[in-house]
């Protein structure tokens, strides 16, 4: 089983880089401990330093994604995951605890103002691909109760069963979501800003270190570029 960032993705974002962590044999806990929750709280304060302009969408770490989402078909109102987190921060709303793995990657996302997501590897059907889709891929978002298929021309993560994450990094699906039973996960951080390559590397290292420290699994780090477009994940 592989993860493949397809040619249709690199045609849109030739300077992009995807930091990827394979995290296996996870010792998942049902709830986060105090240390993880403290890291999430501290990340809230760090995230405020990225919001220097009064209009949320004008802050560079958000504007770059607003511009990116104009390059492919999106569902109305779709925004990058980092914008959703920073919007909460801008309103002084806490990013609530979900489970240890999700809390760790949300803290990383806030600390570095980069989108981050994770999926359960064992729930994939065939290879996972990031590509422009022809549309009609089955997808049920976390929290929804009905199918919401992808659109023609939409950029999404998908496998042979359907979409895994819609509109690049907007919303994850129920089928491959991280749960307390997850044993093997893949985590993504995407950067489309060539000036933030070092930030991405720092963020991935921070994420890997905290995953190892708190959940004891085996961590494998990769970086994908247009010269290195795939990695074996299982």
Brief summary of the model shown:
The chain is an alpha+beta fold. The chain has helices at 7-12, 34-48, 60-68, 81-90, 100-112, 197-215; strands spanning 2-5, 17-24, 116-120, 128-132, 155-158, 163-166, 171-172, 184-191, 218-224, 230-232. It is globular and about 45 Å long.
**Overall pLDDT metric:** 97
Distance between the termini: 5 Å
Strand content is 15-25%
Order of helices and strands: EHEHHHHEEEEEEHEE
Class per helix and strand makeup:
alpha+beta
**What is the helix content?**
25-40%
Strand order of the largest sheet: 7-6-5-4-1-10
Number of helices: 6
Helix and strand layout, with pairings?
Layout: E1 2-5, H1 7-12, E2 17-24, H2 34-48, H3 60-68, H4 81-90, H5 100-112, E3 116-120, E4 128-132, E5 155-158, E6 163-166, E7 171-172, E8 184-191, H6 197-215, E9 218-224, E10 230-232
Helix pairs in contact: 2-5, 5-6
Descriptive key words:
alpha+beta; four-stranded antiparallel beta sheet; 234 residues; 6 helices
What report would you give on this structure?
There is one protein chain. By secondary structure, the chain is α+β, with helices and mostly antiparallel strands. The protein is built from six helices and ten strands; from the N terminus they run βαβααααββββββαββ. The protein has a six-stranded mixed sheet with strand order 7-6-5-4-1-10. Strand 6 and strand 7 form a beta hairpin.
């Amino acid at each position: 089983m592989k993860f493949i960032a397809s040619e249709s993705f690199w045609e849109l974002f030739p300077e992009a880089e995807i930091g990827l962590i394979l995290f296996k044999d996870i010792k998942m806990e049902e709830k986060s401990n105090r240390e993880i929750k403290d890291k999430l709280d501290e990340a809230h304060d760090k995230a405020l330093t990225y919001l220097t302009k009064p209009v949320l969408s004008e802050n560079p770490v958000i504007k770059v994604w607003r511009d990116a989402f104009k390059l492919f078909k999106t569902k109305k109102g779709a925004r990058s995951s980092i914008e959703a987190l920073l919007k909460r921060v801008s309103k002084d709303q806490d990013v609530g605890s979900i489970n240890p793995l999700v809390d760790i990657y949300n803290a990383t996302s806030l600390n570095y103002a980069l989108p981050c997501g994770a999926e359960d590897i064992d729930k994939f059907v065939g290879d996972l691909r990031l590509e422009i889709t022809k549309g009609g891929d089955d997808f049920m978002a976390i929290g929804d109760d009905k199918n919401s298929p992808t659109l023609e021309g939409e950029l999404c993560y998908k496998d042979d069963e359907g979409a895994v994450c819609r509109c690049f990094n907007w919303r994850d699906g129920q089928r491959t979501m991280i749960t307390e039973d997850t044993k093997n996960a893949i985590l993504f951080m995407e950067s489309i800003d060539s000036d933030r390559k070092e930030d991405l590397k720092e963020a991935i290292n921070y994420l890997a270190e905290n995953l190892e420290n708190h959940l004891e699994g085996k961590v494998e780090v990769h970086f994908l570029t247009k010269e290195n477009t795939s990695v074996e994940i299982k």
